[in-house]
Amino acid sequence: MEELLRTTDITLIPLAKTLLDGEDIPSFELDVNMSILEGSIGILPRRLMVRTADLDRARRVLELAGVDLAR
């Protein structure tokens, strides 16, 4: 698995997952429990992971949708 996205923006992960699901690219969110433990105040980033084989395609999907992967 490769990290596709790391963000503290709570709206970005669901958007990215929806876009990837629409292209049949499986993804997995990491650090959800750590974010909950810190009280969801947004200081700990969450990561969105994809399979290594899907990484380039997943990046293109998000970039075409205007998602800034440099966050």
UniProtKB/TrEMBL annotation:
Pfam families linked: DUF2007
Cross-referenced InterPro entries: DUF2007 (IPR018551), N-reg_PII-like_a/b (IPR011322)
Superkingdom of source: Bacteria
Domain DUF2007: residue ranges: 1-63
Signal peptide extent: none
Name of the protein: DUF2007 domain-containing protein
Organism: Sagittula marina
